[in-house]
Amino acid sequence: MNGNSNGQALAALVELPAPANMTVEASENFVLTPQVRHIADRALAYLKAGYPVHFSGPAGTGKTTLALHVAALRGRPATLMHGDDEFGSSDLVGGEYGYRKSKLIDNFIHSVVKTEESMSTLWTDNRLTLACKNGDTLVYDEFTRSRPEANNALLSVLEERLLTLPKRRAQGDGHIEVHRDFRAVFTSNPEEYAGVHRTQDALMDRLITIKVDYYDRETEVQITQAKSGIPADEAELIVDIVRDLRALGLAKQGPSLRASIMIARVTVQQGARACHGDATFTDVCRDVLGSLAVKVARDGQNGMHPTVDDVIAKHARDRRRLARAAGAPASTLTALEQGA
Fold first, then answer.
1. Is the N or the C terminus of the chain less surrounded, counting Cβ atoms within 10 Å?
2. 325 vs 6, 233, 284, 321, 328, CA distance in Å?
């Protein structure tokens, strides 16, 4: 409580903290193969021209990591938001989340005490508003998980470069001009995924959509090795197993690169080796890839385990055949036979 020279006491005001942005930097471990570089360069070019970028593709293809990498290349602070079915427009732009109360006690004349109290609501800016004000790179991850009406505020932001704040009109600032450095990167999964909404055509028309599919083998091997520390030849085997199962089309989606990274990380952590004959490695493959819940009938049994075992054995045979063709010594062939 502070006083002034007239004997009046004023209540201290405390405002709610605003959400903070973050500084992103390009990671030294980010795998930048020609395929990844080509996608990132295209996205960065569109952002420089002033257009928002939309990475669309299956789960597990690294869309979020790619979006953050592109944001880091801009050299601006980034604001990260995740789509949510419970979002309303206020979760993006802000709202009245508290109140301000002031109390005035007038005791200038000692025989007269006058007290006045007033209360007003407090407006707090949310992430979209702060990004528009500060010129951040907005990374809106899985934005189609939010309901279309929650994203309506983005329409004028991306087109007219104005953010409308209807609840602040009484304060004389019903809209703000978007900072000239503000840019946006969106990611989304296909519409057939659970929890995904079909967004309004008006918003999609403002985005430049880049389809992000599964990477080529070289990229998947390098990412798997970089994320796990597993030897290159073992990373190749894991990726080949995952890619073979993916090519079989036994599941509606996947398995993705994420499955390769999981298998590689657990294999390294357990001190096992990615090779035929290592029981731990086989169990990890079964457990990770079994989440696909594919129903394959084999001898009256349902499940993924026979298929996973078949693919592992197939690649073991292929490696032995390649070793023989290359004239490998007998000791190497024996090791391969034993799964060493």
1. N
2. 99, 18, 30, 6, 8
Q: Helical H runs in 11-103?
A: 34-48, 63-74, 89-93
* Angstrom distance (rounded) from CA 320 to CA 301: 30
User: Are 246 and 205 within one domain?
Assistant: no
Range of the domain at 290: 217-338
Q: Are residues 129 and 252 in the same domain?
A: no
Half-sphere exposure of 39 (CA within 13 A, CB side): 27
Give the Cα separation of 39 and 23 in Å (integer): 22
C-alpha span between 267 and 31 (Å, rounded): 21
* pTM metric for this prediction: 0.77
Q: How many domains does the chain have?
A: 2
- Cβ atoms of 296 and 288 within 8 Å: the answer is no
Same domain, 205 and 262: no
Strand partners, 188: 56
Q: Does 45 share its domain with 152?
A: yes
CATH number where 45 lies: 3.40.50.300
Last residue of a domain, one of 142, 177, 211: 211
Do 246 and 180 fall into the same domain? no
Residues 205 and 231 in one domain: no
DSSP code of 254? Answer: -
Choose one of 211, 231, 250: the last residue of a domain.
211
Check if the beta carbon of residue 124 is closer than 8 Å to that of residue 99.
no
pLDDT tens-digit profile, the chain (340 residues) = 445 444 444 433 344 444 456 666 666 678 989 999 999 999 999 999 999 999 999 988 999 999 999 999 999 999 999 999 998 888 888 766 655 556 666 666 666 556 666 555 566 788 999 999 999 999 999 999 999 999 999 999 999 999 988 665 555 567 889 999 999 999 999 877 778 899 999 999 999 999 999 999 999 999 999 999 999 999 999 999 999 988 887 666 778 999 999 999 999 999 999 987 889 999 999 999 876 544 444 444 555 566 788 888 888 777 767 656 655 455 444 544 444 4
Is the backbone of residue 172 left (phi > 0), alpha (psi -120 to 50) or beta? left
